[in-house]
Here is the input.
Amino acid sequence: MSETPRLREDPESPGRWLAAGDWTLANAATLESLAGDAGTREARLLDARGITRLDASGAMLLWRLARNAGVGGDGDRLRLRDDHAPLFAAVQGVCQNPPRTAAKDYGVRALLSRIGCTVEDNAREIVALIAFGGEALLTALRVAPRPARWRVTATIAHMETVGLDAVPLVLLLSFLVGAVVAFVGSEVLAAFGAQVFVVELIGISFLREFGVLLTAVLLAGRTASAFTAQIGAMQSGEEIDAIRTLGL
Here is the structure.
């Protein structure tokens, strides 16, 4: 059961403040009100031994109250319970010396450092890609002579995911790009009286260049994003950890 935080001045000893109750995050609004009512009035002694529960937010408000009252962290003027003293000391250290974020360096040295890190990361990615390709090739060579180990169902499922499911998107984008090329080509060729060759322009350009390029880009982007989403779902479901535990 949470106890309402209290802060009052001892009527028998003026200048002596008594803090009691639960100084926790759940009572943050009440603590802010108490600190606001106290204002910047100076205190001779702040007795916080009546506090039953204290967390980091309550310790921060208590430190702010002690600072405004001129008590600070003086052990003679600020009385704390033994089990609350370490937490208050830690919060006081952070409040008095807040961590400073180093300013970003936008000079030549930082630029060269970023370029070097990027080159190193790309080199590692290339090495990992080559290693993956070699491992896949060796696995295929080991499995090829053993048809019993072929995973036909999984292979067909991945072929459907990678290729067949991407056909509608490839068709849509190819149609839109073809329409744009046909419109622009007809406008340009009309100036030379060669508008009749628009059909040949579309056919040759898509069969030789655009068709292959668009298909490759769409398959790579769509398939990579689909696999990434699947791996992310497996990671969140701890399936990757289970596979590593099984040694697979």
Observations:
- The longest helix spans residues 198-236.
- The chain has eight helices and four strands.
- The helical segments are 28-38, 56-68, 85-96, 108-143, 152-162, 167-190, 198-236, 239-246.
- The CA atoms of residues 74 and 186 lie 86 Å apart.
